[in-house]
Amino acid sequence: MLNTYLVGGAVRDKLLNRPVKDKDHLVVGATVDQMLALGFQQVGKDFPVFLHPKSKEEYALARTERKQGQGYTGFTCYAAPDVTIEEDLIRRDLTVNAMAMDEQGQIIDPYQGQQDLENRILRHVSDAFIEDPLRVLRVARFAARYHQYGFTIADETLNLMSQISLSGELSTLTAERVWQEMHRSLDEENPEVFFEVLLKCHALEALWPELHRLWGVPNPEKWHPEICSGVHTMMVLQQAVQLTTKSASPSIKQNSTIIRFAALCHDLGKGLTPNTKWPSHHGHEKSGLPLVESICKKLKIPNQYKQLALKVCEYHLHSHKAFELKASTLLKVLNHLDVWRKPEEFEAFVIACKADFLGRLHFENRPYPQEQFLFAVMQAASSVTAKEFVKQGLVGVEIKNAIAKARLNAIEEVQQNFHNVATDIG
Ligand SMILES: Nc1ccn([C@@H]2O[C@H](COP(=O)(O)OP(=O)(O)OP(=O)(O)O)[C@@H](O)[C@H]2O)c(=O)n1
């Protein structure tokens, strides 16, 4: 009979009454050969992890880990029947992740994880915490996820996270791991907490200087009572969360992390404004584009994320000023956004712009009639297609010109219909 325990996130989330996604099991006192003889399938390359023959859940042999080399690689692990459960649990990142549950449902908790769970504290288990720089990002992500329950990070743990960040070790993490943590954080209810934690522990400046530069960059008080561009960006991110959950359309929910990423990047250009020009940021939409490109390249971010982020960065002010734009400018923007081929991306674009508008102190509950207007403009313009002009016998460039003209007329009609709304907000 194997001596197995449920460990890690499954125990933590069970105690928090949250749904358990992955069940990880720990096996104490067994050998690789015993596991194979019982029909388990070995999957781990670096240490002995197996899949259960029926449930396919993960079972890992108890192990200790020592860091040998630099960075995220360079661990030597020792897995053998004499490794105790306490020895396995002490190598883990947080006390709330270092609990085990035996088959009778009894909790094994040598590092006071339950107490920290009750006190809503994310605390490292031992000094070995600093051996793994990924933990800086993991703890920031857990802080974002459990913020809703009132969790905060213990001061000593935050100090260790600063120590790791300032040591330069974060640069040893692969792009994929970093993006995985950022992406998972964007999917949480309070992704802004992820970035705020990274700011506090000096990881933001090490990982994304383009984003870090926004803190301390002022905006005009009239439009941005919160003043700081970094604070504004965090408020926009939170608005993007609100707009991509609950009552959002299925396609918006499906693209929620793409929209949130675009919200995060929309004002990067403000970090480049010379301080002699503050608090105005003329041209920040264009100057932000290479910064968005650079973050996406560094993290090897999927193309869909980059495409929307670039569009929101370049055209968010056009969205806010939609009622003041000429029909020809509106048509140009629709062309740039390629709404004819990507209508769903346009919906995502408008939501990200709306998050920017609402993500300001005291603006949170304002209406954003630009949303309805832009959809009406898009729909009217999209309803014009080549078909009718082909029927009339037009060919080549004549068709192109006729479509453009008809689209302009359609947009002007929508402008007339929205005339009252436009004068109200003007
Ligand atoms: N860098 C890491 C990665 C993992 N772990 C340990 O391995 C467990 C399982 O890791 P993982 O599945 O990545 O995380 P979960 O805690 O299960 O969290 P999530 O809900 O995000 O999957 C963690 O609870 C933690 O005990 C760790 O100590 N340090």
UniProtKB/TrEMBL annotation:
Cofactor remark: Magnesium is required for nucleotidyltransferase activity. Nickel for phosphatase activity.
Q: Which PROSITE patterns match?
A: HD
Q: Please give one Pfam family short name.
A: HD
Q: Where in the numbering of this chain does the HD domain appear?
A: 229-340
**DNA-binding listed as a keyword:** no
Instruction: Name any cofactors this protein relies on.
Output: Mg(2+); Ni(2+)
Q: Which UniProt keywords apply?
A: ATP-binding, Hydrolase, Magnesium, Metal-binding, Multifunctional enzyme, Nickel, Nucleotide-binding, Nucleotidyltransferase, RNA repair, RNA-binding, Transferase, tRNA processing
One biological process term from GO is: RNA repair
Q: Record's family?
A: Belongs to the tRNA nucleotidyltransferase/poly(A) polymerase family. Bacterial CCA-adding enzyme type 1 subfamily.
Q: What is known of its domains?
A: Comprises two domains: an N-terminal domain containing the nucleotidyltransferase activity and a C-terminal HD domain associated with both phosphodiesterase and phosphatase activities.
Q: What does this protein do?
A: Catalyzes the addition and repair of the essential 3'-terminal CCA sequence in tRNAs without using a nucleic acid template. Adds these three nucleotides in the order of C, C, and A to the tRNA nucleotide-73, using CTP and ATP as substrates and producing inorganic pyrophosphate. tRNA 3'-terminal CCA addition is required both for tRNA processing and repair. Also involved in tRNA surveillance by mediating tandem CCA addition to generate a CCACCA at the 3' terminus of unstable tRNAs. While stable tRNAs receive only 3'-terminal CCA, unstable tRNAs are marked with CCACCA and rapidly degraded.
Give the free-text miscellaneous remark of the entry.
Answer: A single active site specifically recognizes both ATP and CTP and is responsible for their addition.
Name of the protein: Multifunctional CCA protein
